[in-house]
Amino acid sequence: MFGEKPLVFNPQVASKKPTNKQSCPFCEREGLENIIATKEDCIWLTNKYATLQKTEQTLIIESKKHLGDISNYSVLENRKIFSFAVSKWFEMIALKKYKNVLMYKNHGPLSGGSLRHPHMQIVGLEDNEPYKQIQWENFKGIQVAQTKQFEINISQNPLVGFCEFNVIVDTTDVNSLADGVKSVVEYVLQDYFHGKCDSYNLFFYLLDGKIICKIIPRFVVSPYYLGYGLAQVNDDVRLREISTELLTKMNGKSSIAI
User: Fold this and answer.
1) Does 171 share its domain with 204?
2) Which Pfam families does this chain map to (predicted)?
3) pLDDT (tens digit, 9 = 90+) per residue, 73-96?
4) Residue (of 87, 245, 104) closest to 163 by Cα position
């Protein structure tokens, strides 16, 4: 992941961003500006604090619930949020103004996010093409579950490591995407690493007629990755243990038939 030129960050803008120690701007909805679209509790708006040059930064406010998250939304609520977010991601892609349009989500203190209130980000890149550095091999691995609707696996060739979950669906089946991601996120926050993981990222990709969501539990980043771009991955024995743990949880709790 070292081949693409860096995004240029504006610290002057970043210094003005609100923090979790202040009142939450996403809870004070009457004060929101530059709203692009709304549907029920979801709001799509331009990011007031656009910190990256040569980008178009937008936000999806998922819910009125300040402590809401994929892990505690109902199945129906989560599906509505995913439907709204994916549709707006596709809208920005359809504009054909950007070399790439990224959608991602931060959750937790180690995820890189600044505000707790649940939101996703959709960012149009004017110059950068990160897909050039991503291969299908990054989304293949030990299979957890496969149905007619989706595939869930654990990367054996991760982008960062150690444990990266991939949910893969057809572009028309956003409900299955939402359900699969919800199952993985619940496992990550409640069971993975003995329940000590409190942060994760979601990264969304559009490849060969498929939507892929990569779920990465977040801890301190490995020095091998920071210094040399070398990802680390658990051995196959541990990956298969994690696969079994996740599948058992899905069979016991999820509304999805596996």
Assistant:
1) yes
2) DUF4931_C, DUF4931_N
3) 999 999 999 999 999 999 999 999
4) 245
